[in-house]
Write a structure and sequence with these properties.
Alpha-Beta Plaits, binds iron/sulfur cluster, two-stranded antiparallel ribbon, 3 helices, single chain, alpha+beta
């Protein structure tokens, strides 16, 4: 968590966009386990990112097996 503190500070200072999950999601849950701030949860038929919590670190996108997670 410590290594993400600078990103949390950046998020507060800048208004940068979160990542989001598209319909290629197969609900494997890997991204939710990876996210350092618990911004990802199960939605209707796929996983979803809470944009108010996401710090835009990109870790979930790197761990998604279907490439369903992209920066907005
Ligand atoms: S890692 Fe990718 S496929 Fe798996 S739940 Fe997350 S978005 Fe969906
Ligand atoms: S970009 Fe980082 S903070 Fe945002 S949902 Fe993915 S892992 Fe979580």
């Amino acid at each position: 968590m410590l290594k993400y503190n600078h990103l949390i500070i950046r998020k507060k200072e800048e208004n940068f966009m979160p990542h989001s999950i598209n319909s290629d999601c197969i609900s494997c849950g890997a991204c939710a386990d990876i996210c350092p701030v618990s911004a990802i949860g199960e939605g209707a038929g796929q996983y979803v990112i809470d944009p108010a919590v996401c710090i835009d670190c990109g870790a979930c996108a790197d761990g998604c097996p279907t490439g369903a997670i992209r920066p907005e």
